[in-house]
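Sequence in, structure out. Go.
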Amino acid sequence: MSRSRNPMFQIALTANLFEWYEFSVSGFMALAIGRLFFPATGDTNALMLSFSIFASSYLARPIGSVFFGLWGNRRGVGSALKLSMLGMAIPASLIAFLPTYASVGYLATGMLIALKILQGFAVGGEMPLGAYFVSLNTVGKYRGIYCALVACSTFLGMLLASLVVFGLPYAAAWVSRYFPGTAGLTIGAWRWPFLLCMPLSLWIFSIRGAVSNAGIAAPSVGVPARWRDHAVTPLWQAAILVAFMEMQVYTVFLWLPSYLHSYVGIANFDARSTNAITLVTFCVFTLCAGYATRWISAHKLALIGIACLVLFSYPLFAVLQMGGFLVLLAVQLAFALMAACLVGVIFMVLPDLLKDNWQSMGMTLSLTVPTAIFGGTAPVVCGYLIERTHLLTVPGLYIAVMGLFALPVAYHLAFGMPSQSPNVVGFPREMRTTEPRQS
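Output:
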């Protein structure tokens, strides 16, 4: 079976694509949406109000993680994946048909908020369960690269959104030129990226149509026995690893360009261009880390990445103060290499840790709650620490200190428990990436 037609490869490749396409479109078009769904105001306020709406979706994610986690445990991960896809696709597509503030006032604002909250509820199960399904249904030499591909699908969604939004004014100009009677259509061109959500979601849903309703091996009813024994250790271990991973990723790959420009005084072009190069390279490093699990266990690779980040984050932030394009690029590439050792294997480590007790519920909770608490707040915390200490290198210290909490967890997983490849259950034999190992 060719790689492009392999259902598991397609599921991994599109695991986070839709979520991050819509999220990125909303971010890239935040100013336009702020102007359309709020009273006339300045661009700064419109931008702030727009992002506040999109941030509201995060409030519903933990609730969605509980719902879809329980659904996955009781009715199968495959069923939960399909349901979460519908839960994201319908609200995202309906945004394209919303009236604006100019038409119905704050009713338009309220409908947009409601759709974003519904979408956030579904996202609470989308990414965790997609990763969980791929990880526990792939064994042998393909498991590492496919789990890394799940992480990389995020960047594919961002790239697609970037291309769509970039080409939007050119497409509107072309339609206006060759179809002069479509003025109303071009005025509503902001709706087009959201209309694309419909065919995109149908395509991904058709890929997931091959997923067995049985899903991962899990109790069909009731609560797993280990839950009643208060097996909370795997859950908080997973949460600590995710909290460190997310705060580091948000700090280094999302906030760093603003930090370099606003605090260090680096030219905006240098800050943005080095970040863009780093993101592409980070994706490559992530895939390489997944591929490297053929020779080194995922747990040990995660330990190496965390240990290196603890040791070198502060010195690297000190080097950033030197400026210069090549220096900035070298430092960020070093961060990308270290972070990839954790990000590239996290969707192997977490399922191995949670599959015997918390299962789908643990996967959703351990990814959504720490991300909301530590990932989204990382830029704010870093800015606050700089303001209080007047040290431009303090974000590196923040990463190192957070890593000290994750380091003993990673060490225990690397040397205190075996790294096991799960059995393949609930996925048709002809669609597996490799045959399950014989016990």
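Check: Residues 212-230, 419-439 have pLDDT under 50 and may be disordered. The longest helix spans residues 143-178.
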